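Quick one: structure for this chain?
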Amino acid sequence: LKAEKNTKRVPSFRKLLRTSQIKLDNKLKNKQYKQKSAAKKYRKEQKKLREAVRDAISRKPFPLEECKKKQVGKSKKWEEKEEEDALPLDMMDEDDLKLMEDLAQKASFLTRDLSSNEPVHIKKRKHESVIEKYEKVPRRLQTEPEKELIHLLPIKDKSGIIPQAVEKPVLNVARDEEEDTEEMEETEDFIEEPLPVLTPEEMAAQRRQKLQERKMHIAALASAILSEPDSNIKKLKELRAMLMEQDPHVAVIVRKLVMVSLMEIFKDIAPSYKIRPLTEVEKATKVKKETQKLREFEEGLVSQYKFYLENLEQTIKDWKQRKLKKSNVISLKAYKGLAEVAVKCLCELLVALPHFNFHNNIIVLIVPLMNDPSKMISELCVEAVKKLFKQDKLGYASLGVVKVISGLVRGRNYDVRPEVLKVFLHLRIKEVELQKDSEDIAPKKKFMTYKEKRKNLSRMQRKWKKAEEKLERELLEAEASESKEKKLKLHTETLNIVFVTYFRILKKAQKSPLLPAVLEGLAKFAHLINVEFFDDLLIVLHSLIASGDLSYRESLHCILSAFHILSGQGDVLNIDPMKFYTHLYKTLFSLHAGGTNEDMGIVLQCLDVMFAKRRKQVSQQRALAFLKRLSILALHVLPNSSVGILATNRVFMQTFPRMDLLLDNESQGSGIYLPELDEPEHCNAQNTALWELHLLQRHYHPTVQKFASHLIAGAPTEGSGVLPLDLSQRSTTELFETYCMKGMTFNPPVASVAPRRKDTFSQRDSFVDEELNKQLQQHISETVAHKHLDFAKHLKESSLA
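Got it. Here's what it folds into:
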């Protein structure tokens, strides 16, 4: 029964499944604890036994007698049995009795009085020696260590569930120690061998040799891939593995060379279409060898291109996080150069492969780097995005970039660099829209109907006409790369995102440094805004100008945006923009020949939109006031700005009637001119004259002189005072940019005068000077003598009279 109780019941498979790992760990701990407690109990019992032996030795031996009974209430049968089993002393031999007495003298457990109630744990005797104590400790047999079991999944049989277990393999510690000692000896032997000491010249030569070997290897792999991309596509992996170069002497240069080489390879071998993954049905179908080879090439190309982009991304991330690899082959300082090369490669791929796979991933990597603190990396990314916008004819790539930029601006809470938003100005939406309109207006090709052919053509002519129309339809389909509806949809979505970004900044971040970029963008795309938003937008622009928080350049962009709105679809609105005219008239004198001279281009654009395109809505007093103030401003700016202003004045004189009033010095009404008044309608500009033109006629720049003389003559379109064609046919902004002096050059160039040689002409020059002085003195003396004679003759005549 005891054995049956001790045997544990085998747990069922369902119970094993329900048992969690924590419960199993707890059970194992309990089992180990029980084993330890059992061992502890066994040691206690052994200790008690040793104490009893010591107690027996220390006590005086008692004669062998009948043991006293501990328990009183025992049965009589037990007592009778004991009496029968006990042997009397008189029945023993003398030899046996003597042997028993001798044994009693020794430390035997038989001599102990079992009936005594004395405790077993008595104090140790002080006179016992160490050797005796050691000898008294019982010897232990060397037992085998308990083997650990690994429980496996149980097996279900007819008889039931059979648990499975395997002994845990015991590591041979001695063998491992021997192997470690052998390795240590080998390393010691290796360290003991002294390395050859190289001089700096030898180290440089060795580095050059290694670098040349790596370059030749890169060139061989690249040329093999470019010569036969289909068969050598696997060599891309070998070349890409060199991005993990571990030699610290050449690692940085080799990695840079591999990055650039792979970038050029992908630009050359990438197809002009996007590679899509194959479906399960396509993989299962049997195809030709050529098709299978093409599929393998495309699959290998896409996978290696993906790994290459991941390597570039990881390089940039390691540099941004200032994180070194475990190998420490490249320093943190060198990581910056690697990151710059990686960014250049990404920018090249962004521009060169907008149609290929993972282009959106490249956009997501490049756009945040436009706001990078490093000026070099930021400029690289901005220029790449500008190039992408300029060459994107379809609009897919532009839409992706605009979405990411909008999310970046909103995610950073409008705390980004203004250059990030200025890239919107390079979108090709305006040009494509104009081209689309012209295509819509152009008459479409019409084909004859069946009835018309039947009525007007013979049978042979109908046959030829049918073949001709079929060919024309195929040509039209080949020319139409993208449908107009798709283009229009993409451009509309892109513009919506751009305007949402602009309006958010106008509403929530009016004091942000992004405001000039927003106003400049509104000025460019204002003609594409929906008419419903015009009133609200004009109110916001006027409030920004009236607040006084804007700089001069920002206020000019506000004015330009407002008039772009009013000159396009805003013609239908009944809005008087007099406040914008007044603000521009007031702030014209903020321009000068210093830093604000660059803003003259914006002023010329504003004047063109405000006067040339709205001539019917502008009064004569307003035009005269602006003409006079612009003439005064032409005296205070650089020559290119003066040329632009005088060209604008020429447009004024030819557009508005009676502008020649200012060429006459007689007043044309009551009052005097008030140049300090900021109201153009009430400054009495008709009572002044353009005396500034006479000063500009003596300007050191010949083009300014020509324009001043032309305006003094009344800006004629024919006759003696006409401007040359190269000046009259250009716009004001073109003239401003043509005569710009940014490169410290003078346009037109100044003719150089050859210096005269003193050795050949000095004597002749001195002789000529002497002769001239003599003639001059003689002439002066003769003139004085003649005057004296005339004066004396006059006095004589007067005295006689």
